[in-house]
Amino acid sequence: MKKSAFTLIELLVVIAIIAILAGIALPVFNKVTEKAHATGDMNNLRQIGIGTAAYLTDHDDQIFKTTDPWPQLLNTDPTSTVPGKYVPNWRAFRSDFDRRPDGANPPNVSYGINVNILTQSTADGAFDGNISKMDSPSTLIYMAAALSAPLKTAGVGAFTGTSSTPIALDPSKLFGGLFQNYNMINALYMDFHVAQLKYGPTSNTDAFSNNTGDSGNKRWLPKLPPSS
């Protein structure tokens, strides 16, 4: 009685077909996953924007200062089971692009605030942190993902700071939160709308990564209306 079995050639052909199919499917899967992360990132920023607007209403339109642990001010207590006052779910502070393990105490925070907003002055003509006095908040970048390690080369990166320390954005050194071949990033503006911006190169004054010029659809420096 003759036994049937696969020959070595047949096995190699099957393995080659599986490898080809995997090579086709993997980029599609990665693209879908990246799009889901970008959408989740945008939703988080929207929640933080809504929470910040409510916080400002309760604090005479005064935004956080450099020394303020803003996540706790928005969520009240990350270790409590009671929902935060302004941002109910602490998970909103964690970007889907953040690959750090859970369990940090205080919990990890993925987003950073434009340092020019945190840095305030009471001098005449300077920004004192009062958002109601600001000119054109719809073009001022407020917040974005703040990953500073090279995620695309190292595989795993570390976001700057924790929930106990203010996190400032360094627009020219971000890697986490980028999508579409690391060319786009979600940004939350000071009027609390979220938009997708081109990330680089830094020589492009309209790109998010350029923080030396205010132009186009982004701005880094708070401005006050011209004095009459």
Provide structural commentary.
- By secondary structure, this protein is α+β, with helices and mostly antiparallel strands.
- It has one domain.
- Helix content is 29%, strand content 9%.
- The protein contains four helices and five strands.
- Strands 1, 2, 3, 4 and 5 form a five-stranded antiparallel beta sheet that branches.
- The N and C termini lie far apart (103 Å).
- The model is unreliable at 149-166 (pLDDT under 50).
What's the topology here?
Layout: H1 8-58, H2 70-75, E1 111-113, H3 115-118, E2 141-145, H4 151-154, E3 178-179, E4 184-189, E5 194-198
Antiparallel strand pairs: 1-2, 2-4, 3-4, 4-5
Helix percent band: 25-40%
Number of DSSP strand runs? 5
Radius of gyration: 22 Å
Q: Structural class of the helix and strand makeup?
A: alpha+beta
Strand content: 5-15%
Count of spatially separate domains: 1
Low-pLDDT sequence parts: 149-166
Tally of DSSP helical segments: 4
Describe the global form. elongated
Order of helices and strands: HHEHEHEEE
The mean pLDDT is 78
What labels describe this entry?
5 strands, alpha+beta, 4 helices, 228 residues
In short:
With 228 residues, the protein is of the alpha+beta class. The chain is built from 4 helices and 5 strands. Strand 4 (184-189) and strand 5 form a beta hairpin.
